[in-house]
Amino acid sequence: MPPQEEEKITASNGVTPRDRLVTWAEVRSHDNKHDLWFVIDGMVYDVTNWSKRHPGGAKILSHYAGQDASEAWLSFHNDKAMVRKYMKPLCIGRLEDGGPKEAEQIKKDFRELRETVDKMGLFKPSYTFFGVHLAHIVLLDVLAYLIIAHYGAGWVPVVLASIALAISQTQAGWLQHDFGHLSVFKTKWMDNLAHQVVIGLLKGASSAWWKNQHYQHHAKPNVIHKDPDIRVERVFVVGDVMPVEVAMKNKKSAPYNWQHLYYMVLTVALVPVYYHIMVYRFIFTRQKWHELVLAVLFPVIFVTSFYPHVGLTKTIAMYVLMRAIESQWFTWATQMSHIPMDIDKDKDKAWVTMQMHATCNVEKSHFNDWFTGHLNFQIEHHLFPTMPRHNLYKATPLVQSLCKKHGLEYTIKPLGEALIDILRSLKKSGQLWQETHSHTWLHG
User: Fold this and answer.
1) What is the distance between the alpha carbons of residues 20 and 95, in angstroms, rounded to a whole number?
2) Among 135, 181, 272, 436, whose CB has the most other CB atoms within 10 angstroms?
3) How many CB atoms neighbour CB 42 within 10 A?
4) CB crowding 275-291: b at 16 or more within 10 Å, else e
5) What is the reported pTM?
């Protein structure tokens, strides 16, 4: 830190942040959103009053309250020099003592790995790849319109057009994911603008809502009370910890012992019902009016395109069918890499350890890459969230070597097995809930 900067933030006793020593015990005592400290690269930051101004949302910062956020910070930010300028006034001291040697070693090795993949050019995007991907989304939309315009309002063309639209919507979902992770353009504002256009105009959703949810997931994947993707206890219990807690806490609850069966039904409604409610609720409560305009334009364009050809009933049927297919596709493709993995409360694990415990990969093939939006490489994506997805597989051998060195399991499965493992895992968790619930409330 330059001397002139230190002068600006010197404390009243004349001690600069680099001079003030802070122990881990003191950092860990500031572990909630109302008293929020964390460590980045050995420096201690108090972000209690600033957290609401964080572009990624306040919650993601609170998830690291009282912890070391160095690797998370490193992985989420591209323009680190600019971010550090905002961080300087928040710095309150220097960490006096380090963490456990094993944890420090894997952190050091991960940084070296990140430097290696950076030198390999794996953070450089292929504009041809993303251009072709966008083109095939547009072509699918055009195909759907041509099917209806040429073949009329019969149920066969309506269903075929809906399938084409569902494929387009799912692939647009993967594309907005790319922009949302700032992995396409060199500047953040261009990625943010593209993200708002794609997720708003092409999908009818909210960029701010997606980031608020998804960044939390990446920061603490499969961590109970922190990962919004597993805040599902009203209808599902996942892992080994949640089923026991829910069973002991609630006498009356969903029949989780059947969840592996009703999962296949409820996931149809995830996008058509739940996401629509959550998106518009977020937009109105956060007053994101510009995003409301983009989100509303999507259904307006949809109705304008198809209503004159098929009428109101079949237009609604096309929309519902499109969303139902998209919902099934999206849910199975994303959850096969997480639900069967470790799900637990926050253990303050090192970044690499946490991500490896929470994610697994699916074998590479042209179809698997396309079907999952390259999220068959969830491990690499979670370790390097800003890496363009077409480069993720190139980092695999290096990640496997890191895992082998530190005794971490690198899990990779065939697509079919990964999909079936969702149901196996849900059945296991449901049985655990049933056993605990029966023992607690019937025989306790």
Assistant:
1) 8
2) 181
3) 12
4) bbeebbebbeeeebeeb
5) 0.92
